[in-house]
Amino acid sequence: KELFSSYGLLHTMLKKGRIDSNLLFRPDTIKILKKNPLVELGSHTFSHYYALEEGQTIGQFEADIKTAQEEANKMNVSLKTIIFPRNQIPTSYHDVCAKYGFTHIRGNEESLLYKSETTPSKYDIKRILRLFDCYFNITGHHTYKAPKRGVLIDVTASRFLRAYNNTLKLFEPLKIKRIMDDIKYAAKHGEIYHLWWHPHNFGINTNENILQLENICNFFSEMRDKYGMNSKFMCEID
């Protein structure tokens, strides 16, 4: 059975000496990132909190978010953007985020395939269809004119850049073409395109992953020069 709460797991691992406590907090890294004007520091919750799993409560979520902001404040960081782990986003939790100073959130793509849900099984049909959608345009470009405005400003996701897959390497060019087609559509129509990824996933097949990202960035530069497309922090979008 999968363990969804990191608090008990980390406590046990630290107690047994199975993890170096220096790996849990990196204030030196935060100091470096703060100096970079091209970086927005946001929150992924304090504990990588799964907000839709059985057993958790809104009170527990609030305690987690409160701690995240308190730790950020110690570093003189003001967190405005929050990204929910595994895209588990109960709308009732938006008020809690706003209460602690968050203004922007990354919502899920506008499709039933990407609706917030508990962690699916490995062979869940929607999970398989999302993989196909990565390489072939099944659900559309997911671009939009403006973010959704509610308690939080929802800068909805457009596409997840999956890490390079050796097993599917013949299809990898289709994945990048899918993203470039999306970007071009957004640029031509003056719409928002929100590409996101997990940098730590690039730890395997690093060269291939970085090359793909460079190709995407170069294509964005072409769209910027041709159509005036620009890049913004999430917290800058209103």
Number of strands: 6
Strand content: 5-15%
Q: Total number of helical segments?
A: 7
The residue ranges in which pLDDT falls below 50 over 5 or more consecutive positions are none
Span between N and C termini?
41 Å
Structural class: mainly alpha
Strand order of the largest sheet: 1-2-4-3
Specify Rg, calculated over alpha carbons. 19 Å
> How many structural domains can be distinguished in the coordinates?
2
Major pleated sheet: 4 strands, mixed
Shape: globular
Could you please describe the fold and organization of this structure?
The model has no long low-confidence stretch (mean pLDDT 92). Helix 4 links the parallel strand 1 and strand 2. This protein is mainly alpha-helical. The protein has 2 domains: 102 residues, no CATH class; 128 residues, no CATH class. It starts with 5 loop residues before the first helix and ends in an 11-residue tail after the last helix. Helix content is 39%, strand content 5%. It has a 4-stranded mixed β-sheet, with no helix packed on it.
